[in-house]
Structures are given as structure tokens and as C-alpha cells.
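Section 5: illustrative case.
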């Protein structure tokens, strides 16, 4: 009897809708009862929440465009580096290898080799007296090339980091704003019925969901690409040291 009396009090006080009201509310929120209509949540949101949602959707789309582009970029860099290393250590003449690669668009390890060989040929051809400082110049050129290649690989990764760190808070701002709007509407209408409060709160929470949807993939792939860029940088640095040793032996032989 106590439970029944409490239920009647809550029901009569308007704190909860009747059973039929709950069924109608669920049906209206879910369209056909299969789940919430996200388009309807977006269209029914306040202008500020719509602006937040639109920004998060655009950030998510642009993040995925960067992610797809970087997947191809890093895959190509690994493939080209593996192919070049096989050619470099195959015993082929460095002059022949340079001649074939210098006419192509190079990247990663092949770009490092072409830049170093170009500096070598500029220093040696026609002026053998400059051999004393050639090793330092070749090393400088390789350092600059490594920096440029890493910058190219890491280009636009900052956007992923920014989205990953700020999108949840932007979504939370939209949620707070939407809830504030809902409470203001309750105060104006003086209707505390759950059916009147739920739509506004659902729209507000949808902003948080969009923030997480944009942030989680951005964080995951930012960490992945940053790790791959570091590995490629170490690999380029290792090749630069090996090539510097080859140049040093050539200089000692010629001197």
C-alpha cells in the first residue's frame, strides 16, 4: 500500500508521466521505436547547440580525411624505404642508383640519399681540393632532409591532437547550454513533466556524443602516426650515419 500510495503521489504531482505517456515519449523519441532519430535531435536543437554540433561534425569529417591521407602517406613511406634499402645494399653502383633516382620524385630514405649524393657530386666534381669539409656538408644536408621529411609526415597531425583534446569539452559546452535552455523552458512553461524535459536533454547529450565521436579516433590515430613518424625518423637517422661512414671512407681514400 505504501508503494502504491507513493506511485500515485508521484504520478499526480506530474513528476512522472503515466504509463501511456512513457510509451508515447519513447515512440516519439525513437521514430519507429528502433532508436533515436539523430537528424531530428539536430533539427530540434537550439541555434547555439546546432552551431556546436555542426562544428564537431565538420571536425570529425576533416579528421577522417587526414587519417585516410596519412594512412596512405605512411604506408608509401615504409614501402619506398624498404624498396630503396633493397636496392642500396644490393651492390648496385651508387652513381647508377643516384642517376635513376634523381630523375624521379623521391621521399623518405631515397630523398635522403639523393640529397646526400647531390651534395657529394657538387663538392667533388671539378674541385677535388674541397674534400676536407665534404663530410660535414653531407651530414648537414642529410640532417636538413630528415627534418623536412619528418615535417612532411607530421603535417596536419596537430589538427588531430587539437580535435582529440578539445572536442569533448566543446561537446560538453553544447550539453550544458542545451540543459540550461531546457530548464529555462521549464521555468517559463511551469511544466515539470518528463515528457517536456526529455527532448531538450536528449538534444544536449547528443552534443557530448558528437564530441566523443570526433575526439576518440583523432586521439587514437594521432598517437599511431606520431609513433610511426618517430620510427621513420630513427630509421632515416640510422641510414644517414651509415652513409656518412661510406662518405668518410671515400674521403680517406681520395686524400
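Designed sequence:
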Amino acid at each position: 500500500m505504501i508503494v502504491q500510495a507513493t506511485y500515485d503521489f508521484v504520478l499526480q504531482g506530474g513528476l512522472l508521466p503515466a504509463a501511456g505517456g512513457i510509451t508515447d515519449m519513447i515512440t516519439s523519441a525513437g521514430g519507429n521505436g528502433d532508436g533515436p532519430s539523430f537528424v531530428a535531435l539536430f533539427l530540434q536543437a537550439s541555434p547555439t547547440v546546432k552551431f556546436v554540433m555542426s562544428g564537431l561534425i565538420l571536425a570529425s569529417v576533416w579528421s577522417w580525411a587526414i587519417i585516410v591521407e596519412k594512412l596512405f602517406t605512411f604506408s608509401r613511406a615504409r614501402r619506398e624505404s624498404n624498396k630503396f634499402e633493397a636496392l642500396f645494399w644490393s651492390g648496385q653502383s651508387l652513381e647508377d642508383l643516384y642517376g635513376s633516382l634523381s630523375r624521379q620524385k623521391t621521399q623518405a630514405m631515397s630523398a635522403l640519399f639523393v640529397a646526400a649524393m647531390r651534395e657529394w657530386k657538387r663538392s667533388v666534381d671539378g674541385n677535388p681540393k674541397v674534400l676536407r669539409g665534404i663530410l660535414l656538408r653531407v651530414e648537414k644536408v642529410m640532417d636538413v632532409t630528415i627534418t623536412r621529411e619528418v615535417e612532411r609526415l607530421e603535417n596536419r597531425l596537430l589538427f588531430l591532437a587539437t580535435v582529440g583534446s578539445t572536442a569533448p569539452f566543446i561537446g560538453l559546452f553544447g550539453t550544458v547550454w542545451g540543459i540550461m535552455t531546457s530548464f529555462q523552458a521549464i521555468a517559463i512553461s511551469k511544466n515539470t513533466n518528463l515528457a517536456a524535459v526529455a527532448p531538450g536533454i536528449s538534444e544536449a547529450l547528443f552534443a557530448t556524443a558528437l564530441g566523443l565521436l570526433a575526439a576518440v579516433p583523432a586521439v587514437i590515430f594521432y598517437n599511431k602516426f606520431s609513433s610511426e613518424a618517430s620510427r621513420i625518423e630513427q630509421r632515416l637517422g640510422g641510414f644517414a650515419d651509415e652513409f656518412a661512414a661510406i662518405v668518410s671512407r671515400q674521403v680517406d681514400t681520395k686524400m
